[in-house]
Each structure stands twice: as structure tokens, then as C-alpha cells.
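Researcher: We plan to redesign the surface later, but first we want a full-length starting point. C-alpha cells attached.
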């Protein structure tokens, strides 16, 4: 009982959230919707009068054999038909425009919200799920809004109006036909209750499908290189089969309504014809009334089927609305705290920082006890084994995640108290898995910052990219494929470094961003940073010792802990792991003799 009560309460809460979500976006368009619904109402009423006029003409006008009267009532029918057609077309166009505008705003807000989610929230929701919510879920909302405006007014009016019209013609026959309606409404209610969870499950299968396709398209080269095409086809087939199975199950449940409607309404029609035949034979009704009843029955049948389709759209739309509302309702994860300033004299400082990607207290933190400090203009190199937490240190500094313990300060301020606009202007970043967009080189390097030609050239020159860019036919205006697929790995990295250097940042972060560069280009890049960015505090994560050995400080991580911190020579003398890495890459003699000026 308690579980059922909790489940019912959760369902009511979800329904309130969904209604609030839809109402918030519908409210600004209420005036347009009201006008469209009024036009749709008038057009539908004009439709309803046509069978009534036909019955009146057959039973009352035609027997008088007065041609002008027949032509006059025929003209009324033509007028009602014209009103019905023109008003319904106008209302449908208005409903489509309203649905389009509302969906555009929902999609915009959803994209804006997704852009503001913290990395932890994106990890929980997953990128494929966000893509599905932005595409298929917003499409379902569009169909719901458009369908409800078109059929949500017309179908109930035709249903109720048809019953009222038939009641005015012959109450007895109307009661015979209306006796079947409760059964049809019960079927619609029961099926729609079952359909919403099924469509929610279907959208989750769509998320999985998007994830498989996204992973396969992103890793197409490695799939081909390792001859795993057949394995990926099987993986896709499993996801496709699961989505098909869930869609089939949902469609089977929702498909019960049509045959049930036809069954009950046709039974009602048979009863109407039988009772009507007895009443005509007893002179209690007329042939025109029976003809009108048959026409109204068709109208009522089509209206009921429209209501059925409307419930199918509602079930899918409600499931999608819940999923979209879930994202829009996510709280701000990285809240702005109070400004906490300490005059430490350091540009960047980590104070006993710890962090874990999971909330499990029994699991060992990924980072633990991370403490270091850099003065303005100093360079820190970070080395360590794969999975030791090197990139995580940078993500904490950039506040992609909040540290579980300790403090991170920039210019003496706790980064949790620095407004995002002010904070991120301090950084130039080239991440390990950074992205080039399907645009020109100029736009990829400028990245919306309106660089002058001199600033663009300066960034490309310092990033060692100017020469190969000038060798291209269109220079900086050369278009790039998505993710820079028409460039080599080294060219992509140099453009990404150029993007990071473009605005002469206070803090430069290079996360394994020179791994594809040859030693000569890497050395020239480090020389350019030393000569032209002396006032920039630089943090370099690298796999190659040569990229960081001349840094002011080198931090060696192992399993999330600092096991070595100092200069190259100090670490050679006191850190076994660093010495092992140096000797494996450079040889014992070169490792011991290397050093010199810093980066």
C-alpha cells in the first residue's frame, strides 16, 4: 500500500511538472491559439449543419417541388461548405505556426540549458540522451501541440455536436447510438494510461540508439582499422532490435483502440438501422432522418478515431514533455558562492584538493591531497601514468567540476566565488580531446572573438601553424570539415593551440595538446611561449618529458596523489617514477644532462 501510494504520488508530481512545463510555453501564445480555436470552432459548426440541412431538404423541401426553395437551401449548403473548408484551412495554418513557434522556443531553452549544465550533470544525463531530447522529443512536442489545436477542438465538437444534432432529429435513435460511447471512452482511457510508460521506455531506447550511432561515427577509423565493422553492425542491430521491440509493444497497445472503436460504433450503427427501420415502418420517423443519422454516424466515427489518434500523440508528447522538463528543471550545479579573497601572492593555488567522479563514500577518491602554488608567469608541467588524474586537475581548475574537498584559488580568489564571465576570460585552453568545427580556419581560431588580421596571424605564428595555413589555397578562409577531418593530427593540434593563444590569456592550459607534434615543432612552440608569453602562467599536461622538463615546476601524479614536485633535476634525484619515465624516453645519460632555461 505504501509503495502504491508513493508511486501514485510520484505520478501526480510528474503530471504537475509536465502541465507546468507546457503551460509556461503555451501562455505567451494564448491569444493566437484562442483566435485559431475560435476559427476552428466556427468551421466545425458549419460542418455539423450540412447533414441537418440535407435531412431537412429531403423530408421538407423536396416534397414541395419548389425549385427556388431547393436552390436556396442548396446555396446555404454551399455557403456552409465554403465556410467549413476555408475556416478549417486557416485554423490549421495558425495551429501549425503556433506549434512551430512554441517548439522553437522549447528547443532554444533546452539547448541553452544543456550548454549550462555542469560536466557532472552531463555525465548523469549523457550526451546521446541530450541529442535525443533536442531532436525526437521536441518533434513529439511539436506534433502534440499541432494535433491538439487541430483535432483537440474539432473532434470533440464533431462528437458532441453530432450527438446533439441527432438528438434534435430523433432522440430514440440517438440514445441507441450513444449507448456504445461509454465503452469506447473506457478503451481510450485504459489504453492511454498504459501507453505513456511505454513511450517513455521507447525514448530511452532511442537514447541508446543515438549513443551507438554517435560512438560508431566518431570511431569509424578505428573500427575499420581493427576490422570491427561486423561487431559494430551486431551492436547496432541489438540496439535497433530493442528499440523496434519497444516501439512494437507500444504500437500494439495503442493499436487496440481503432478496432475497438470500429467494433462498438458499428454495433451502434447496426442497432440504429434496425431500430430506425422499425420506426420508419411505424411512421415515427422519416427517411431523411435515417440518411442524416448515417452521415452523422460517419462524422462521429471519424471524430472518435481522431480522439484516438490524439491520445496516441498525447501519450508520446507527454513522455517527451517529462523528459524535456527533467532537463529544464535541473538545478544549477555549480552555484556562485561568496567572494573569498586571500592575499597569498600566488597566481594559482591548490589547497589540499580532493575529488571523485562518484558519490560513493566507500570508493577511494580519484584525487587526494593535491596542493601546489604557482606565481604569475611560472610554468607547471604535469606527468603521470594513464588514469593518475592529470586531466582532472585541469578540469577542477577550470571549474568543470567542483572539488569535493579543499580550495582552488586564482589571483587569491576562491574560484567558486568568481563570476563565470570574469573567470573564463582568464584562460586559454587546448584540451586533450578538443574540437574543430565545420567552419573556416579563421572562425575556428577566433571562436566568436572578432580577432583582427594581426591578432589572427600572431596566434597562428606562435602556434607554429602560419606556414601550413598560408600553403592552403584560401589561407585562413579555408573551410574545415567537422572535427578537422581534412587536416592531419599535428595541424589540428596547432590550430587548437592557436585558438588558446589568440587573446593572450593570463593562464594557458595545454592538456597533452602537442602529442602529435614532432620534436622540432614542439621545441619551437615552447620557445615561442617562453619568448612571447613570459607573463602567462602555463600548465602543461604531457606524456613526453621533453615537453615539461624545462618548466619551473613539475608535478608527478600516481593514483591521484602527488609523489613528486620540483624541478627536473630535483625529481631526477628524488622521484623514482619520474626518473624511470625520463630514462625510458631519453636514456639515462640524456635525462641526467638535460635541463636549462625554462619553457
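Model: Full-length starting sequence:
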Amino acid at each position: 500500500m505504501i509503495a502504491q501510494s508513493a508511486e501514485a504520488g510520484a505520478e501526480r508530481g510528474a503530471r504537475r511538472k509536465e502541465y507546468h512545463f507546457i503551460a509556461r510555453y503555451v501562455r505567451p501564445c494564448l491569444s493566437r491559439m484562442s483566435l485559431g480555436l475560435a476559427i476552428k470552432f466556427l468551421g466545425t459548426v458549419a460542418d455539423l449543419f450540412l447533414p441537418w440541412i440535407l435531412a431537412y431538404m429531403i423530408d421538407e423541401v423536396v416534397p414541395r417541388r419548389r425549385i427556388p426553395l431547393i436552390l436556396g437551401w442548396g446555396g446555404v449548403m454551399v455557403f456552409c461548405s465554403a465556410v467549413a473548408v476555408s475556416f478549417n484551412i486557416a485554423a490549421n495554418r495558425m495551429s501549425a505556426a503556433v506549434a512551430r513557434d512554441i517548439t522553437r522556443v522549447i528547443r532554444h531553452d533546452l539547448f541553452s540549458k544543456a550548454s549550462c549544465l555542469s560536466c557532472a550533470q552531463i555525465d548523469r544525463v549523457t550526451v546521446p540522451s541530450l541529442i535525443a531530447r533536442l531532436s525526437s522529443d521536441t518533434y513529439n512536442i511539436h506534433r502534440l501541440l499541432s494535433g491538439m489545436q487541430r483535432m483537440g477542438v474539432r473532434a470533440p465538437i464533431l462528437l458532441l455536436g453530432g450527438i446533439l444534432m441527432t438528438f434534435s432529429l430523433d432522440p430514440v435513435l440517438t440514445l441507441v447510438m450513444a449507448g456504445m460511447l461509454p465503452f469506447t471512452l473506457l478503451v481510450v482511457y485504459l489504453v492511454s494510461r498504459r501507453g505513456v510508460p511505454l513511450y517513455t521506455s521507447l525514448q530511452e531506447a532511442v537514447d541508446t540508439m543515438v549513443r551507438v550511432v554517435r560512438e560508431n561515427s566518431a570511431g569509424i577509423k578505428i573500427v575499420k582499422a581493427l576490422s570491427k565493422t561486423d561487431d559494430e553492425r551486431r551492436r547496432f542491430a541489438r540496439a535497433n532490435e530493442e528499440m523496434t521491440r519497444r516501439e512494437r509493444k507500444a504500437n500494439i497497445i495503442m493499436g487496440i483502440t481503432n478496432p475497438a472503436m470500429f467494433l462498438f460504433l458499428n454495433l451502434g450503427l447496426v442497432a440504429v438501422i434496425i431500430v430506425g427501420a422499425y420506426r420508419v415502418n411505424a411512421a415515427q420517423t422519416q427517411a431523411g432522418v435515417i440518411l442524416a443519422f448515417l452521415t452523422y454516424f460517419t462524422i462521429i466515427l471519424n471524430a472518435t478515431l481522431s480522439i484516438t489518434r490524439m491520445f496516441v500523440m498525447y501519450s508520446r508528447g507527454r513522455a517527451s514533455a517529462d523528459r524535456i522538463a527533467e532537463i529544464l528543471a535541473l538545478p544549477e550545479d555549480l552555484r556562485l558562492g561568496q567572494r573569498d579573497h586571500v592575499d597569498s601572492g600566488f597566481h594559482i593555488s591548490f589547497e589540499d584538493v580532493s575529488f571523485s567522479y562518484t558519490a560513493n563514500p566507500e570508493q577511494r577518491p580519484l584525487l587526494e591531497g593535491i596542493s601546489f602554488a604557482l606565481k604569475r608567469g611560472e610554468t607547471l608541467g604535469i606527468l603521470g601514468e594513464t588514469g593518475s588524474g592529470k586531466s582532472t586537475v585541469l578540469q577542477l581548475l577550470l571549474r568543470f567540476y567542483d572539488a569535493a574537498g579543499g580550495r582552488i584559488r586564482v589571483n587569491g580568489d576562491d574560484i567558486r566565488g568568481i563570476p563565470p564571465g570574469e573567470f573564463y576570460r582568464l584562460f586559454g585552453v587546448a584540451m586533450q580531446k578538443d574540437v574543430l568545427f565545420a567552419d573556416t580556419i579563421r572562425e575556428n581560431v577566433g571562436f566568436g572573438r572578432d580577432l583582427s588580421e594581426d591578432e589572427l596571424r600572431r596566434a597562428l605564428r606562435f602556434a607554429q601553424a602560419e606556414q601550413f595555413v598560408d600553403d592552403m589555397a584560401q589561407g585562413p578562409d579555408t573551410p574545415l570539415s567537422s572535427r578537422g577531418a581534412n587536416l592531419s593530427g599535428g595541424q589540428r593540434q596547432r590550430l587548437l593551440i592557436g585558438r588558446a593563444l589568440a587573446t593572450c590569456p593570463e593562464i594557458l592550459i595545454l592538456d597533452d595538446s602537442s602529442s602529435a607534434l614532432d620534436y622540432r615543432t614542439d621545441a619551437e612552440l615552447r620557445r615561442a611561449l617562453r619568448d612571447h608569453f613570459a607573463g602567462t602562467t602555463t600548465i602543461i599536461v604531457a606524456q613526453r618529458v621533453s615537453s615539461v622538463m624545462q618548466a619551473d615546476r613539475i608535478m608527478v601524479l600516481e593514483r591521484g596523489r602527488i609523489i613528486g614536485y620540483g624541478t627536473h633535476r630535483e625529481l631526477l634525484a628524488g622521484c623514482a617514477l619520474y626518473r624511470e619515465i625520463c630514462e625510458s624516453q631519453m636514456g639515462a645519460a640524456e635525462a641526467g644532462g638535460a635541463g636549462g632555461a625554462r619553457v
